Amino acid sequence: MMELKLRILDLLKEDARTDAETVATMLGAAREDVEAAIAELEAEHVIVKYAAVINWAKVNESVTALIEVQITPERGRGFDAIAERIYLYPEVNSVFLMSGAYDLLVEVQGRSLQEVAAFVSNRLSPIDRVLSTKTHFILKKYKHDGIIFEDREEDRRMIISP
Amino acid sequence: MEPMTKSMQDYLNPRVRAIPPSGIRKFFDLVSGAKDIISLGVGEPDFATPWHVRDAAVVSLERGYTKYTPNAGIPELREEICRYLSESFRVAYDPDREVIVTIGGSEGIDLALRALINPGDEVLIPEPCYIPYNPITSISGGVPVPIETFAKDNFKLTAESLRARITPRSKVLVLCYPSNPTGGIMTYDDFLPIAKLVEEHDLLVISDEIYAELTYGKKHVSFASMPGMKDRTLLVSGFSKAFAMTGWRMGYICGHRELIAAMLKIHQYTVMCAPIMGQVAALEALQNGLEEKDRMMESYNQRRRLVVKGFRDIGLACHEPEGAFYAFPSIASTGFSSEEFAQRLVAEARVAAVPGDVFGLGGEGHIRCSYATSVAQLNEALERIGEFVRKVKGA
Fold first, then answer.
1. B255-278 pLDDT tens trace
2. Which of B142, B149, B196, B347 is 20 to 30 A from residue B187's alpha carbon, by CA?
3. Which long-range contacts (CB under 8 A, 24 or more apart) does B196-199 make?
4. ipTM of the complex
5. C-beta atoms of A160 and B39 within 8 A
6. Which CATH topology does A2-43 take?
7. Which of A3, A7, A160, A161 to mutate to test the interface with B (most CBs of B within 10 A)?
8. Which domain holds residue B235?
């Protein structure tokens, strides 16, 4: 079952819209088994959501920043409580606990530089236990989650070959 | 200036002149102008060469690897090829004397036929098959003897049909399994009676195993690994299909040292050596590319299942292709010839597939469909073919 699940995940990460019947055909598995496995993966929150990967730069002028945040961990709850206070803001795309020179890496998206800057100074920095922040604005996204954003590597094969 | 009294045709080698124009070429010319075509007619992977392989070639150019190499290829590559064949297919060759790195598998086929064929020698060729064996045999002065294989046998070569075509002039048997265009494979048990006939009739075998890595379910059996067959077999293979390196033109041929020595003479006088940047890339592919190769195989297998089911759902009989990346469904139920079906499919459904008759005997009534293309394109192509088949069957 675990092996089937991993193979299903490999397919769905490429195209989340692939239906259970197609997945079953492609993996040479029974449709009922695939449906059961997907239901379990959803229930276990392994599959968290079926979302589109969007190149926002093509449709609006949004700005994304990666912010290094140093914090003082809380007795008993470590970094989790403070991470939660941060990730609950809708402006925050992602939060990672990091090893190394800082503690949390926070990805924040806004409509403008000012908006992101305002979020950092008004929301993030004032949080108790946040010691410092360092904001890096993303200038261009080349690849994200294994997906290359530029249109390239089109099919250059001849239409017919032996 | 005197006008030429002979036509250009008169200057040509009659064997070359006698070769008919390629059917696949004719079909290519027909579809090359068409727009918005989904092509299932491509005989190469849809993956780009893995980046680490391309990068190795780029670095080699930067470092000035731009010279000739030894005729047989750089020693490290020959060693890796021999290690790879031994580990993957249990057939052992001496890297110093039993392998030549060639310009694609194609050069290997040419070297083998040219080195072996005397005028009048018969070359047994199971068909439908990859096109060049037949014309290259003719250019070498040999006589191609096609052997028809059938969908009901999963396009395997049977001992009966081979025996029926063997004559005292028979010299060489060409094998191409996994098969382009049918996807058929030969197992150990399938090969046993063939090997027996080869021994009985003292034949040599040119085994084109370019699709060796692409088998689904059953592991490829190299004909050279069959008992007693190593010395009788010239194993032709390369990097094009398994490592997605068609444009690099990197292949190799392995066999008995006396045959290899003879072929090396032709190779050194015609091409000198395979291009060095390709050899560096091939070395990288063998040293660090096996995992990536396996990922590509898994992806082909997924699409293979999708396409075979798709054709059967449409109502086109399709045997189970167990190798390569082609399905070879029968279109006989539509009442069209392969060529007519393929032409109308392009014109009316905007899908290109290769008519089976271009691959020789037994190809008529089929079309070759490569599934080395994206799932989205395959689904769209199947939908279009389905609509077309319903239309022509209803009419």
1. 999 999 999 999 999 999 999 999
2. B142
3. B196/B159, B197/B159, B197/B162, B197/B163, B197/B166, B198/B173, B198/B229, B198/B232, B199/B228, B199/B232
4. 0.86
5. yes
6. Arc Repressor Mutant, subunit A (1.10.10)
7. A160
8. 63-289
